[in-house]
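This is your field. Please look over both lines of this record.
***
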Amino acid sequence: MHELSIAISIIDMVQEEAEHRHASRVEAIHLKLGPLSGVVREALEASYEIAAEDTPLKGTRLVIENVPVVVYCSACDQQQQLESIQNFTCPACGSPTPDVIHGKELEVVSMEIIE
């Protein structure tokens, strides 16, 4: 389960940033997570709780925003949101759409701190 190592990395990064900002407490960590990131949301949430247990981040909220898969369709010359990650074809015209614009994200976008 690689989500545990990801959770540990998130904790390390957030703790370092909180120390840099002289925060007394972190309330929440906000993430963007795409279905093509290779990370299972539920596994990450469970792993985060385990990894944060003996750290100053114990009890912080992990707020995860699900990012849809958006591809670029060269036939339509537009970005389109896929209906299913099992079918990489444009929902408007049916053309193959291998150019992924969004959906691979796994990024910490913000954190709520108390200074």
The CA atoms of residues 19 and 25 lie 10 Å apart. The chain has two helices and six strands. The beta strands are 25-33, 61-66, 70-73, 78-81, 99-102, 106-114.
